[in-house]
Amino acid sequence: xxxxxxxxxxxxxxxxxxxxxxxxxxxxxxxxxxxxxxxxxxxxxxxxxxxxxxxxxxxxxxxxxxxxxxxxxxxxxxxxxxxxxxxxxxxxxxxxxxxxxxxxxxxxxxxxxxxxxxxxxxxxxxxxxxxxxxxxxxxxxxxxxxxxxxxxxxxxxxxxxxxxxxxxxxxxxxxxxxxx
Length: 180
What we know:
Layout: H1 3-10, E1 13-18, H2 24-35, E2 39-41, E3 47-48, E4 52-53, H3 56-66, E5 72-75, H4 81-87, E6 90-94, H5 98-110, H6 126-142, H7 144-158, E7 163-167, H8 170-179
Parallel strand pairs: 1-5, 1-6, 2-5, 6-7
Antiparallel strand pairs: 3-4
Helix pairs in contact: 5-6
């Protein structure tokens, strides 16, 4: 299957979402290589230099600007639901178990994966990275039920409006990508 065939199966505007540590960035890069669609990592736009959080209204304006294009893969667990419903053709929900997501975040704290891009002006020390990633471990565990309920509600809301793919394991994600 060539890039045109793969993007016609999925659509031209794809959102990849899931719990922190689910593998959104990695999966998005794989989809990009199969479809030729550019990846937009919304996390890069959530921070100003020095790790200052972008105010929500400003972030939503940036999301609207970024998603105005006709071809993209968005990698985020923080895309605005209304914007998603208005713009996306496809939702890929990486519904990995919370403990797997937490393990990946824990490991990412020890070793940043190759090819990771940080927001402009946001450097990180090892201790900051450890604190941030291991904080994800805690939040994934503590909020695992409400996060999963929100994600399921979003997938349910999107069904009938766009293609929805719920992938619950690393093997399902690999099989899905291999079929493209």
